[in-house]
């Protein structure tokens, strides 16, 4: 089984070096690597060139169009039976391809995805973000798990498709933001067998600061509404939970301010505030304990709480703002 690994790259030469290094140690060697530089100003060609005598790697530079179309550019030039899509900020475990082959043979997948994990070399913030993106107490609970909500939709940081899937679907139709979810839905609707290979995980760095993480997950929330506009049936109640969380926080803050100013004069609001703050405290304690047990680090566990709240608020606010833009502001205009 021959694999073509396609990696879109945009102004991240340091990241690609680490990923390429991890591919040197693969137990299964029958793969090619296609790096597509998507209009970067900070190019990585000089780094890729250093690996050409060690890996079957090809480097292409194209005008910036977004990661979705950069992957299509790589698909058109790929020779593999299966195409593997990675983000540039990952480290690939040495037995990755063997796990993929086992999963394909066992389940007969036409397309598949794998989960992500935190590597020992990651910073405390990166480990905290990794926890948040995979925790059952955040939106991460529906990503990359055996027990997920509805049909599994592979994400583009770790995604594989057969050549037949590419030839029939034409690849990505969106260039950015939720392009992988749209592609996954279209593959499923085309009759292909799509699923999760739990053991085919990668170490995913994601973002290096909470500011970057907020921006990324805010766009995820917006993207969920974009998907809803294309495929209304794909919006599940669970997708709205972060938005409800944000609205609840705003409502609770308003109640707390009123109670502070009126000093128990409004009994009903006092009871609501007590219930809301108790629930929030219980959730925070439960999240903290789970993070501490999961990460086995006090520092990472505490940062994981910050990451979880960042994710929920960012995703929820993105969801709400895009919903307002699509269905409220546009109608008024």
Automatic annotation (TrEMBL):
Keywords associated with the record: Glycosyltransferase, Membrane, Transferase, Transmembrane, Transmembrane helix
Annotated transmembrane regions: 240-261, 267-293, 300-324
Enzyme type, top EC level: transferase
Gene3D superfamilies: Spore Coat Polysaccharide Biosynthesis Protein SpsA, Chain A (3.90.550.10)
GO MF annotation, one: glycosyltransferase activity
Protein name, UniProt field: Glycosyltransferase
EC number: 2.4.-.-
UniProt organism field: Sphingobacterium daejeonense
SUPFAM superfamilies associated with the record: Nucleotide-diphospho-sugar transferases
Glycosyltransferase 2-like domain residues: 4-157
């Amino acid at each position: 089984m021959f694999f073509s690994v396609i990696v879109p790259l945009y102004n991240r030469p340091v990241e690609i070096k680490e990923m390429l290094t991890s591919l040197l140690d693969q137990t299964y060697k029958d793969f090619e690597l296609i790096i597509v530089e998507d209009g970067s100003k900070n190019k990585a060609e000089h780094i890729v060139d250093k690996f050409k005598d060690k890996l079957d790697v090809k480097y292409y530079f194209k005008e910036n169009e977004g990661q979705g179309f950069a992957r299509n550019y790589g698909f058109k030039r790929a020779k593999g039976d299966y195409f593997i899509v990675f983000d540039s900020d990952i480290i690939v475990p040495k037995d990755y391809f063997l796990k993929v082959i086992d999963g394909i043979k066992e389940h007969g997948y036409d397309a598949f995805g794998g989960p992500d994990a935190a590597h020992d070399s990651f910073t405390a913030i990166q480990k905290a973000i990794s926890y948040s993106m995979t925790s059952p107490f955040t939106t991460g609970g529906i990503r990359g798990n055996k027990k997920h909500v509805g049909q599994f939709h592979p994400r583009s940081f770790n995604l594989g498709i057969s050549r037949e899937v590419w030839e029939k679907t034409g690849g990505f139709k969106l260039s950015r933001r939720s392009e992988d979810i749209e592609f996954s839905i279209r593959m499923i609707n085309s009759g292909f067998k799509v699923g999760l290979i739990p053991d085919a995980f990668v170490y995913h760095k994601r973002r290096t600061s909470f500011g970057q993480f907020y921006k990324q997950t805010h766009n995820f929330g917006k993207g969920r509404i974009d998907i809803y506009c294309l495929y209304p049936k794909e919006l599940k109640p669970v997708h709205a939970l972060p938005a409800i969380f944000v609205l609840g926080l705003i409502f609770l803050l308003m109640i707390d301010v009123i109670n502070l100013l009126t000093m128990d004069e409004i009994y009903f609001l006092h009871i609501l505030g007590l219930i809301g703050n108790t629930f929030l405290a219980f959730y925070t304690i439960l999240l903290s304990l789970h993070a501490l047990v999961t990460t086995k680090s006090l520092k990472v566990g505490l940062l994981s709480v910050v990451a979880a709240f960042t994710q929920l608020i960012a995703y929820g606010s993105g969801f709400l703002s895009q919903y307002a833009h699509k269905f409220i502001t546009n109608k008024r205009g």
